[in-house]
Specification:
355 residues, Dna Ligase, domain 1, two-stranded antiparallel sheet
Length: 355
């Protein structure tokens, strides 16, 4: 009896191990050659028809296992369309693409939005790559109903963006990255939604920290955006954190931020040139070189990277109140005392050319 029981246990174990092995085999890619195929899935196609089409194109190893995978994972909403698939994709990747309807079209466009660009630059890039005009991108921000709908849809957007002093309500909230769109007819709301969705993914892991932070999400993104523009060496995360610490220390002491970057934004200056005395003296709430403008500026001033967001949320404590960068090398120097800062500023005056 014990012998029969042992045989049964071993048989069950054999079947289980074999099953796991087969499952692992069939969910892996067909090969690593990345052979691309355009697979057409007609409307009202059954799972069985889709499985045969994928097997015919050598995208999956087994049409029967494909059907089993769908059943086990409770997938029953595969969408019709043209899909670009390749033989190096896992079964999960293939199913996710068809389930999410990531349809391939020959006129699909890719647009890159770099960190550090402002909303005007964003509008120029959209105009260059799509059938939307520069004014289309700017004018949508005048639609209060549209902005309120976004506030309802995204937890990190609040009434703060509706402040009349803000130049562009969505400045700093659109996440910089490379995005795919169906074609040049993509609408401005579709573009904005995709960038806000990505910002949601980036910010959500920090939502608990943001909730208990002394600064709200609007203020944190504002700090992040200034650090984004101020740090010359974009690969130096420590510099970003130190720059944020400088501004936090100045805020705590009631000192104006003294940032040329914000002053440039205040006059909507995108070109590279030294600022004039009158520009430094302007009363814009974005002009933090005006010593009477104490506190944070009304909004972020550019698209912010994940590193800058982390620098503003996971802040470090320093005693620094000043910093200056060598524009030529990207190195940033930090100081506690004004005389040390002024000496370094004089030293770098020729290199920085008045910046």
């Amino acid at each position: 009896m014990k012998k029969i029981l042992l045989i049964c246990v071993l048989a069950i174990l054999f079947v289980a191990v074999s099953g796991v092995g087969l499952y692992s085999y069939y969910i892996r890619p067909v090969d690593n050659k990345k052979v691309e195929k355009i697979v057409e899935i007609e409307k009202n196609s059954t799972s069985k028809i889709i499985a045969k089409e994928l097997k015919k194109n050598n995208i999956i190893k087994s049409d029967l296992f494909f059907l089993l995978y769908l059943k086990v994972n409770n997938v029953n909403d595969l969408k019709a369309g043209r899909y670009k698939l390749n033989s190096s994709m896992t079964l999960k990747e293939i199913v996710d693409i068809i389930k999410n309807g990531k349809i391939y079209t020959d006129d699909t466009i890719r647009i890159t939005f770099r960190e550090g660009i402002n909303y005007r630059e964003f509008a120029r890039i959209v105009e260059k790559n799509t059938n939307n005009s520069y004014d289309d991108v700017l004018n949508i921000l005048n639609d209060k109903e549209y902005l309120n709908s976004l506030i309802e849809d995204y937890w990190f957007l609040t009434d703060k963006i509706l402040d009349d002093k803000i130049y562009y309500p969505l400045e700093g909230y659109l996440f910089p990255d490379t995005y795919e769109f169906k074609n040049k007819d993509v609408t401005v709301p579709e573009i904005i939604k995709k960038l806000l969705d990505q910002m949601d993914k980036v910010l959500s892991p920090y939502s608990n920290k943001i909730e208990i932070d002394k600064y709200n999400v609007h203020e944190l993104l504002t700090l992040a955006s200034i650090a984004e523009k101020e740090v010359s060496n974009k690969s130096n995360e420590d510099d970003r954190k130190k720059v944020v610490s400088v501004f936090v220390n100045r805020l705590n002491k009631g000192i104006s931020l003294g940032s040329d970057i914000t002053t440039r934004y205040s006059i909507k200056l995108d070109e590279s040139r030294p600022l004039t005395k009158s520009e430094y003296a302007s009363n814009s709430p974005y002009n933090t070189r005006n010593i009477n403008n104490v506190g944070l500026i009304p909004s972020p001033i550019c698209m912010v990277s994940k590193d800058s967001i982390e620098a503003s949320i996971d802040r470090i404590d320093t005693n620094y109140l000043y910093f200056i960068s060598n524009i030529s090398t990207g190195e940033t120097f930090f100081f506690e005392k004004s005389n040390e800062f002024e000496a370094k500023k004089q030293e770098l005056s020729k290199v920085n050319g008045g910046y």
